[in-house]
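Issue 218. Parser rejects a valid record. Input:
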Amino acid sequence: MLEFDSKTLVEPLGTKEKFWTFKENTKYLFKIGRENTDENVSEKIAYEIAKLIQLPCAEYKLALFKNGIVKKGIASKNFLNDDSRLVLGNELLAKFFKDYHKDKRYKLREYTIDKPIILFYSFDKEMLEKFVGYLVFDMLIGNTDRHHENWGIIYDAKKKSFTLAPSFDHAAGCASKVSTEEAKKRLSSKDKNYTTSTFCKKARTPFYKNNKKLSTYEVLDELLKSKREIKSIVSEWIEKISSVSQDKYHRILNKIPQNLISGEKKEFVLKMLQINIQALKTKETNE
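Output the parser choked on:
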């Protein structure tokens, strides 16, 4: 676990307390998860799962900030260099689509799944493949926060090049807001409206269709209904996910200290992953 004792620069983007700091000449963004959530742990779990399926992802490490008081958090290694900058999705969509409201984050009904797909389809095939992977990954981990400031491209001024930024900010995934008590109840519930499976299906994303927010499952349905090339990319990512044994997911959860996440919560996350993996396979087969 990393430890920090000084702040360099407060990061204004987003809603959580976060700041830039250094450890052994490496720049990190230190974020503090919201109280009564497992957001810090969820970021770590998501990162480790992304590595398993070879998905580009910002590196996350569990961390402590010690300066008078101790704060638990998560540290993300800076993925930019001195010559590059991050261009967020809202800026890209505003340049590509007329009258797009780039400064609005919530209830943005024009934020539809086809917009970033069209953007990357016309821009760069490799970026398209990776971005579709991010959306499939969101269904796997139940990430509900892929809004237009939670993805982007990296512009390198020296190389005059563009690359897709690694996936970042997965604090809303891996059931981060589910308490230990809720996890226990859902795992044992006979009420079909309160099972783990129902929880998985109800994960709502910021993407809209017909003025209605899409679930992570519905986002995948939209991708599978699109062009053959997109469907092929989705299938490739599902194949990567399917090739990972359950044992590897268990190892990821087992490495998280018990004082950060309960045994019941680990069991719930593993069950959630199992359900979502099966749903991914089923959706691909039925298409």
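Fixed in the parser; the record now loads. The mean pLDDT is 93.
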